[in-house]
Amino acid sequence: MRTAEHLRPWHAELAQWRKEWDAYTKPSFEIHAAPIRPERIVADCRAVLPDSAILSLDSGVHHNWYMQFWEARRPQTMLNTWGFSGMGFGPSAILGAKLAAPEQPCVSVCGDGGFSMVPHVLCTAVEYDIPAVWVVWNNFSWAAIRDIQYGLFNGRELGTAFYQQPGNKPYSPDFAAWARACGAEGVTVTRSEDFKGALEHAIRLGKPCLLDVHVDANVRPPAIGSWALPPMPHKEPLFGAKYVPRQARKE
Ligand SMILES: Cc1ncc(C[n+]2csc(CCOP(=O)(O)OP(=O)(O)O)c2C)c(N)n1
Ligand SMILES: [Mg+2]
To answer: Is the C-beta atom of 135 inside 6 A of ligand 1?
Structure first.
């Protein structure tokens, strides 16, 4: 019979790759920046939430970050919509999680797009006194789809990044005000230094609470459109297309 002995060299190789991956990705998790880098949200959620906390994820770029970098430490603490990828699943599922596990902090990390699919979850939470927490990963866009458009349409997008006219300013509704209008607590977070404290506050609060967190829409997960391992041959966005800011385009 073959023993695990023959796998040892392979395991050693994997350990080396893991080290290279960590050395490549870790430094970005220690940066404070405005707008807030995605890594900060992942790192501070891990620092603040106990192992028992239940996290729900939705569909979108935020999901890709958590799939790669979230350290789930217990079974049944990371709820996903997986391949169905239905936007709105995460912000709704967290209500069920909190009803099922009232002693555990329950946090929905969802996109601004995904949350806007089901904003009435706030009303349900207030009606039934369900102290869930929503962290709206607000990048003022359907960034997952925007980036595919950038890649396929030569740096252009249509209707997937949100702008206010006149003036073409990046647009997002005020999600914190939206939460307060429903009778929940709502806090806007624009500085990375404030996110940790805001999440601690939300967990302690004991009532439904939404954090509207403004995240940098142009920092992408360190994945590439190939199976190459670090060191990465390039760091271009999906499909290698160059991002052209809307203001700089000649249309
Ligand atoms: C119900 C539904 N409609 C459309 C899609 C296709 N889709 C996948 S991700 C996405 C954009 C998500 O935007 P947002 O929630 O803001 O997340 P982000 O990618 O910006 O993190 C869309 C439209 C989907 N998955 N589910
Ligand atoms: Mg978004």
So the answer is: no
- Reported as a single tens digit per residue, the pLDDT across 144-196 is 999 999 988 999 999 999 999 999 999 999 999 999 999 999 999 999 999 99
Residues 6 or more apart whose CB falls under 8 angstroms from that of 1 comprise: none
Distance 82 CA to ligand 1 centre (A): 13
List the residue whose alpha carbon is closest to atom 3 of ligand 1: 87
- Roughly what angle, to the nearest 10 degrees, separates helices 38-48 and 192-205? 40
- Cβ(62) – ligand 1 distance below 6 Å: yes
pTM of the model: 0.88
Report the C-alpha gap between 95 and 63 in whole angstroms: 19
Tokens 């990375």, residue located: 192
> Is the C-beta atom of 85 inside 6 A of ligand 1?
yes
% of the chain beyond a pLDDT of 70: 87
Q: Does the pLDDT of residue 224 top 60, yes or no?
A: no
Cα–ligand 2 centroid distance for 1 (angstroms): 52
The one-character DSSP state at 158 is S
